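Structure tokens please, single chain.
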Amino acid sequence: MVNGSQIRAARAWLNLSREDLSRDSHVAVRTIATIESGQSVTPRTLADIERALKARGIDFIFENGRAAGIRGPSE
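Here you go.
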């Protein structure tokens, strides 16, 4: 599952505000801030955010079952 660091990096890559991601994922801005600060949320919430970022071309990288980074959309 994605983590706060990956979400923060993906937002930066795409130049998205938390409000933009909130609109795309239907997750509250405050919840996005909570995730990005390293706190836990439900798997469904993370899946909603992951889906929204993947729709914008972000690939999430995992190594040995752990979050390892992101890959941005090809240009």
